[in-house]
Write a structure and sequence with these properties.
CATH topology: Rossmann fold
Protein name: Ubiquinone biosynthesis O-methyltransferase
Low-confidence stretches: none
Number of helices: 8
Number of strands: 8
EC number: 2.1.1.222
GO biological process, one term: methylation
GO molecular function, one term: 3-demethylubiquinol 3-O-methyltransferase activity
Distance between the termini: 43 Å
Helix content: 25-40%
Shape: globular
CATH class: Alpha Beta
Mean pLDDT: 89
Order of helices and strands: HHEHEHEHEHEHHEEE
CATH superfamily: Vaccinia Virus protein VP39
Structural class: alpha/beta
Largest sheet: 8 strands, mixed
Number of domains: 1
Strand content: 25-35%
Keywords: Methyltransferase, S-adenosyl-L-methionine, Transferase, Ubiquinone, Ubiquinone biosynthesis
Length: 225
């Protein structure tokens, strides 16, 4: 089963806070607060790459952001769009391949967020390079991803997917994970201004920000000349 099919399968559980997607809901406030701490979101044009069913997207929109959000999963975009029917917020949801979108995009964004996406993509560098082209001069990119190390493999893949089965098998492919040091190689015209860790405790069901990134890092990139 490929990763796209996995996300299509779990799409109907995306907004169930007590099911397989519970961690997404628990870390959502942490992600949102981190973004707000790094940049003003009110009336800003935000691009949400790999938005899933819109958990973070909706929260940003409710707090005044103007959002374009996209995901490769057709089912997840259906779920996200269905939630707008009885909502006052407006979000431009797109079911499209990310690389194709970035290559053709003529719009400039103030903020680009990329949460838990890079670890599902084979070749990361083209994406990072394309993000530079659609970021406003004083723009901000915020990326969260799983660090490629033995700790991540044991806790997320071995225990999370194969032993305790809290995630679908092969949700994460270890060889696709990206080391934090690799992100730093892509800093041409972008500068990392902050790096933290999103700590998630699966036993006590809570999340917090740590200063030292070990498994799940979140970082800020600023546009520089």
């Amino acid at each position: 089963m490929n990763e796209k099919n996995i996300f299509d399968i779990i799409s109907k559980k995306w907004w169930d806070k007590k099911n397989i997607c519970q961690p997404l809901h628990i870390i959502n406030n942490i992600r949102f607060n981190y973004i707000k701490s790094k940049t003003n979101i009110i009336n800003k044009h935000i691009l949400d790459l790999g938005c899933g069913g819109g958990i973070l997207t909706e929260k940003l929109a409710h707090h005044g952001a103007k959002i374009t959000a996209l995901d490769k999963s057709k089912e997840l975009i259906k779920i996200a769009k269905s939630r707008l029917i009885f909502s006052s917020i407006k979000i431009d949801y797109l079911n499209i391949d990310i690389i194709n979108f970035l290559k053709k995009c003529q719009t400039k964004f103030d903020i680009i967020i990329c949460m838990e996406l890079l670890e599902h993509i084979e070749n990361k560098q083209p994406i990072i390079n394309l993000l530079k082209n659609i970021l406003n001069e004083n723009g901000t990119i915020i990326i969260s991803s799983l660090n490629k190390n033995i700790l991540t493999y044991i806790k997320i893949i071995l225990f999370g997917e194969f032993i305790f089965k809290k995630l679908h098998k092969n949700t994460h492919i270890f060889n696709k994970l990206i080391k934090l040091d690799e992100i730093k190689k892509y800093e041409n015209k972008l500068k990392i201004t902050d790096i933290k860790e999103i700590k998630y405790d699966s036993i006590f069901k809570y999340s917090k920000i740590n200063k030292i990134p070990k498994m799940n890092y979140i970082l800020t990139l600023k546009h520089v000349e």
